[in-house]
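Hi C.,

You asked whether I'd gotten around to modeling the 95-residue construct. I have! Everything is below, sequence then structure, no commentary in between.
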Amino acid sequence: MVEKINEEDRKDLLDELDGWSDVDGRDAIFKSFKFENFRDAFGFMTRVAMVADDMNHHPEWSNVYNQVDVTLTTHDADGVSLKDVELAMFMDETG
């Protein structure tokens, strides 16, 4: 089973991520990605979907035209885990 990150480690790891923030009222992190157009946004989602599926770790996300809003949390851990950090880092590299 995946374990939730403790508060101290979470703060340190969140500081290393680019533009991710805590979600009010949830043990989750959030980031909004903006792209030049819908095609680029959808391409980003496709690349992330392949990696997320291989990880068996699926984001909560939505897409409107050139914007993709992402919330990451690990439901099995009831909060943010290293899986979320790993997927967030991949998204930052890909986005």
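If it helps when you're writing up: The beta strands are 21-22, 29-34, 60-64, 67-72.

Thanks,
B.
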